[in-house]
Write a structure and sequence with these properties.
251 residues, elongated, Chorismate lyase, Arc Repressor Mutant, subunit A, DNA-binding, two-stranded antiparallel ribbon, six-stranded antiparallel beta sheet
Length: 251
């Protein structure tokens, strides 16, 4: 099945943006000029521009036209067990290393585990969990989202039941869990990509249908998983760097 005409035009304009023919801040040709260049009506040209807006390549200004979106510099998020085990917030450490003021807002509530969350936490579907939703910021701009789940059977009635409230607020998962005798020994991360939900796009200031990286992270003690999270990262703003320890003399 052939692609719609407006999408073929959008593909060509996107190619020009990616290859630098149109640079960040440049004004795209008007709908009239696009209509003449591609031999289509103004409505089709407008649909092509709308497609680029939805995918985050272009912004429109009322009465002025469409402009190539300025891309922020790509920052690095370091995924490192060494950093996790040192205590404190790995995200804040990453931001500080790049001279960015890192922070976050959060909201926690008791919820029940979905089938997927239950499998990741090795609990039964419907068991109670503490769900915490985060918006991480760099210099007060939203840069990353996360939703975490912790089994209430472990944390209920303890000083860490609310991840961002109490004497251990703002600490990393490894440090918090150690408070209640849960010594985390390893973590797994599965990285995939998908289309952002409408809510994610709004929170991160992305175009609709933008692609995001999804990190499914789970922390384990020697006996069981104790926390799992979905982390949403815009790939045009951040790259992931993994530091993998290697033991040259295994026992």
């Amino acid at each position: 099945m052939s692609r719609p005409t407006y999408q073929r035009i959008a593909d060509e304009l996107q190619k020009r943006i990616v290859t630098g023919v149109y640079r960040p801040g440049d004004r795209l040709p008007s709908r009239q000029r696009l209509s003449e260049e591609f031999g289509v009506g103004p409505r089709v040209a407008a649909d092509a521009i709308a497609h680029l807006v939805a995918h985050g390549y272009v912004v429109t200004r009322t009465g002025s036209g469409a402009y190539v979106r300025s891309r922020p510099p790509v920052r690095r998020l370091t995924r490192s067990w060494y950093r996790e085990s040192r205590g404190g917030s790995p995200f804040r450490a990453d931001m500080a290393a790049q001279a960015i003021r890192g922070g976050w807002s959060s909201e926690s509530e008791i919820s029940t585990a979905s089938a997927e969350t239950a499998e990741r936490l090795a609990i039964a579907p419907g068991d109670e969990v503490m769900r915490t939703r985060y918006v991480f910021t760099g210099n007060d701009e939203p840069v990353m989202l996360s939703t975490s789940w912790e089994p209430l059977e472990l944390t209920r009635g303890t000083a860490i039941v609310l991840p961002e409230d109490g004497p251990h607020a703002g600490r990393g998962v490894v440090e918090r869990m150690a408070v209640i005798g849960q010594r985390i020994v390893h973590a797994t991360e599965i990285v995939t990509a998908r289309t952002a939900t409408a809510e994610e796009a709004d929170r991160l200031g992305l175009g609709r249908s933008a692609v995001v990286m999804l990190i499914r992270r789970t922390y384990f003690t020697a006996e069981r998983p104790v926390e799992t999270a979905d982390i949403v990262v815009p790939p045009d703003r951040y790259e992931l760097a993994y530091t993998i320890p290697v033991n040259p003399d295994p026992e």
